[in-house]
Amino acid sequence: MHLLENIREAFRSIQSNLLRTVLTALIVSIGIMSLVGILTAIDAIKSSLTNTFASLGANSFELTAKGYTNRFRRGGVQGRTYPAINYLQARQYKERLGDDAQVGISAFITGATEVKAGGLKTNPNMQVVAGDENYLRIQSYNLEDGRAFSPSELEVGANVAIVGPEIKDKLFPNQSAIDQYVFFLGQRFQIIGQLEASGSGMGGGGGADRLVLIPLITGNQLPRQRALTFDIKTATTDPDNLTFIMGQATGIMRAVRGDRLGQEDSFELERSDSAVATLDSLSGNLRTGGFIVGFITLLGASIALMNIMMVSVTERTREIGIRKALGATALQIRQQFLIEAIVICVMGGALGIVLGVAGGNAISLFIPGGGAFLVPWLWMIIGLVICVSVGLASGYYPASKAAGLDPIESLRYE
Fold it and tell me: Which pLDDT band holds residue 213 (cuts at 50, 70, 90)?
């Protein structure tokens, strides 16, 4: 009997014991499904959460003057305080960085103002922020109604505003706030847009409800007692480029700020991807735990497969004696049973992989931001390798037992 004939004989044996083969394959498929399903679910959930974090600004960093907003001490010595980043420096940085990333410039005007309209007024805790054309996108604020600032409004510093839902509900409860006029900080502003409520999405942020957003130049022209502090946030859609862009930003900002060669940076870069780093660590631990759980399940399936193969050897003892009497060697008998075990494992494993991938992606649908179908090629390949390994491990002892049977005693077996 050649190898090809052994493979054919294995398939004939599987076909003649179809019910037992199906049940055995199902045992293996459950083990593989648990292994691939858990690992796929973890990867799918991680992918969904990573996309969500990216939409929240996780793949971004902020530029602030060193020591200006938070003086630090090292070894008991107070760190040097540098001048705040002014409007001209912020604009130059944005222009020089170009299209490599999105840069949003904003300035916090006040966090305790009262907005009035038509004899009504809000609580005196509304926040007024001046921002550019990228502010809404980088902060992940979505418009529920109206529009964003036009280029001309941003360029000339028009008195227009985008307000949060709490302001709209307080001043215009039964009508649209678009094109209405409100008064705050001693000036009149026309509402052109309304933000979504914070609870409508993960990217809403706690400040969206009470926020009043005005053009950056408009905020810079408002009467004030002290110079504004400008916040610069740089974001990229590709997290792999974040480190490279941070290096570019450092060089550009040093030139803009006039930092001399050998002098320390007069500014700080603070990454906003700590949530992603935590997610990577957590997903690694979950993947290890999931692999252990799936491996234990698969171990139980391999024991069940070995038991069924032992029963198969016992039932086919007379058949083995006939084949040996016709000239089959011990190696050929061993190959036949090993191939049979491997084929059963691959059949069950293929079904388990399909069910595991489908189940893992289905679990990720319950996570906010989920929905993209993930095909885990790595886990699928590992699953197939494990199937063959389980077939070899579970079938070797029964195959060796079959190969070692005495042909005369086997022919007498009933």
Answer: very high
How far is it, in rounded angstroms, from Cα 109 to Cα 112? 9
List, for residues 178-203, the tens digit of each pLDDT value: 999 999 998 999 999 999 886 544 44
Helix (H) or strand (E) holding 380: helix 377-403
Q: Which residues contact 298 (CB under 8 A, 6 or more apart)?
A: 28, 31, 32, 34, 35, 386, 390
C-alpha–C-alpha distance, residues 371 and 363, integer Å: 10
Please provide the distance, in angstroms rounded to a whole number, between the alpha carbons at the two ends of the chain: 25
Q: Which of 43, 60, 47 lies closest to 102, judged by CA?
A: 60
Residue 377 reports pLDDT greater than 90: no
User: Token digits for 19?
Assistant: 């019910």
From CA 262, how far away is CA 269, in angstroms rounded? 18
Calpha distance 12→389 (Å, rounded): 22
Instruction: Report the distance separating Cα 5 and Cα 13, nearest Å.
Output: 12
Structure tokens at 251: 């060089």
Tell me which of 358 and 190 has the higher pLDDT: 190
Residue among 279, 340, 273, 348 at smallest CA distance from 311:
340
- How much of the chain is helix, strand and coil, in % rounded to 5? 55, 15, 30
pLDDT in tens, 280-295: 667 677 777 777 877 7
Give the tokens for residue 367.
């996570």
Query: What is the reported pTM?
Result: 0.53
Distance CA 322, CA 319 (A): 5
Contact 351, 389 (CB under 8 A): no
CA nearest neighbour of 339 among 295, 282, 392, 398: 392
pLDDT at site 308: 77
Pairing of strands 211-215, 126-131: parallel
What angle, 0 to 180 degrees and rounded to 10, lies between the N-to-C axes of helices 18-55 and 274-315? 180
